[in-house]
Automatic annotation (TrEMBL):
Job of this protein: A probable RNA chaperone. Forms a complex with KhpB which binds to cellular RNA and controls its expression. Plays a role in peptidoglycan (PG) homeostasis and cell length regulation.
Name by which UniProt lists this protein: RNA-binding protein KhpA
SUPFAM superfamilies in the record: Prokaryotic type KH domain (KH-domain type II) (SSF54814)
UniProt keyword list: Cell shape, Cell wall biogenesis/degradation, Chaperone, Cytoplasm, RNA-binding
Annotated localization: Cytoplasm
Presence of keyword Chaperone: yes
Protein family membership: Belongs to the KhpA RNA-binding protein family.
Domain of life (superkingdom): Bacteria
Gene: khpA
Cross-referenced PANTHER family: RNA-BINDING PROTEIN KHPA (PTHR34654:SF1), UPF0109 PROTEIN SCO5592 (PTHR34654)
């Protein structure tokens, strides 16, 4: 899952070498924190959050096999 987020994010940004994904496992969910260069935050979020919503939809769909919930948070 972490690799999938990384590949998608690197395709969207101007500074792909600064894309970082960290994983935190809490009680019943995995929380992925996507960190990008401050100039690229808008590109990952998109107009009215459309790209971020699409990214979250893809990750949630890919995580159906897991028994835990998955969330994606975008930070600069």
């Amino acid at each position: 899952m972490k690799d999938l987020i990384t590949v998608i994010a690197k395709a969207l940004v101007d500074h792909p070498d600064e894309v970082r994904v960290s994983v935190t496992e809490k009680d019943d969910k995995f929380e992925y924190r996507l960190s990008v260069h401050p100039d690229d935050v808008g590109k990952v979020i998109g107009k009215q959050g459309r790209i971020a919503k699409s990214l979250r939809t893809v990750i949630t769909s890919a995580a159906v096999k897991e028994t835990k919930r998955v969330t994606v948070e975008i930070v600069s």
